[in-house]
Amino acid sequence: MKRAARMDGVAGFGIDQVADAVVGADVLRLENLDTDLPLPPEAVAVTRAELASPVSNSWLPFTGDLGLRAAVSDHIAARHGHVYDPRREIVITCGGCEAVLDILLATIDPGDEVVLTDPIYAGLVNRVRLAGGVPVFAPLVVRDGEWSLDRDALAAAVSERTVALLLMSPSMPSGCVLSRQDWAEVARLCTEHDLFLLYDAAMEALVFDGREPCGPLEHAGMAERTVIAGSMSKAYRMIGWRVGWIAGPAPVVSDAGWVHVYNTTGAVSVARRAAEAVLRGPQAHVAECVAELQARRDAIIAALPGWRIVRPAGGWSLLVETDRPAEWFLERGVAATPMTGWGADVAARHVRFVFSAEPVERLESLSARLA
């Protein structure tokens, strides 16, 4: 059977293979993004209450309930100071990664280049390929023990074939957080080269060490050049609900919305109701989870002195530079993910530890397991 050219270079994750190899309960599950952090209080209650409602068994509206779209608009306005029209500039999707693919399919032609950082989430890299685009990587650098955007490398990655930058902050899997000066350089590149920014905002609330939130929409001209892919899966831990969104200029959101409709029809109705309730509800639980994630990060670093670990500034994973394969870690009761395919040369030198599903007390056992 014919194989589509777009599948060239598209490879599977190492995550599921590592998870399948886990035997026994005494293995630290650091290989995937499941979480033991508590759900928002409204998530389960509203889902249960709405199960029997007729509107929870409806196809409509394909692009998401207006109430949820308005809640997303308010959520973005509170964080970024920009108000999106819920009717024309927001579409609800089946998670944030569907939003990314919808945007790419609506904007990328075969051969168009999209610049990402190295390392970066393999799911973003391969969605660029599935859309017919060519991923180009700008390597991150380490400054003061943390990952940092190399602005010169980012500028050098832009060519006459570049149409977009695809960035996360905090970035997965590195935990790199872009500074206000970094976003200013992104804005300069987008303006000078007539690019658009696909901003994966899934992790943006999960920043550590009291960092001041900042983002691309602070900079002049970027509201017209930015398309946001958002999600309930990270800051709100609602992984299984599969609710995300697209927010941006009306023309591209309209096109991406049609991609969404013809790909998935609509996000699950009852999940959309829960998402709206959570976005409208108290937000203190987000800060509580950030504090717990930061404590877990610190526990891993303290347990492994002498290991080449780059401290993440946010998110819920970190990278360890090592030539040891994932199998070596698993033999010692640590399930970790190889980073082959999660960027280029920088990613390939690392394995990933995810700290969203293991408490501090178990993470402290790393020192004995990996002695």
UniProtKB/TrEMBL annotation:
<dbReference type="InterPro" id="IPR004839">
    <property type="entry name" value="Aminotransferase_I/II_large"/>
</dbReference>
<feature type="domain" description="Aminotransferase class I/classII large">
    <location>
        <begin position="39"/>
        <end position="364"/>
    </location>
</feature>
<dbReference type="Pfam" id="PF00155">
    <property type="entry name" value="Aminotran_1_2"/>
</dbReference>
<dbReference type="InterPro" id="IPR015421">
    <property type="entry name" value="PyrdxlP-dep_Trfase_major"/>
</dbReference>
<dbReference type="InterPro" id="IPR015424">
    <property type="entry name" value="PyrdxlP-dep_Trfase"/>
</dbReference>
<keyword id="KW-0808">Transferase</keyword>
<dbReference type="GO" id="GO:0030170">
    <property type="term" value="F:pyridoxal phosphate binding"/>
</dbReference>
<dbReference type="GO" id="GO:0016212">
    <property type="term" value="F:kynurenine-oxoglutarate transaminase activity"/>
</dbReference>
<dbReference type="InterPro" id="IPR051326">
    <property type="entry name" value="Kynurenine-oxoglutarate_AT"/>
</dbReference>
<keyword id="KW-0663">Pyridoxal phosphate</keyword>
<dbReference type="InterPro" id="IPR015422">
    <property type="entry name" value="PyrdxlP-dep_Trfase_small"/>
</dbReference>
<dbReference type="GO" id="GO:0005737">
    <property type="term" value="C:cytoplasm"/>
</dbReference>
<protein>
    <submittedName>
        <fullName>Aspartate/methionine/tyrosine aminotransferase</fullName>
    </submittedName>
</protein>
<keyword id="KW-0032">Aminotransferase</keyword>
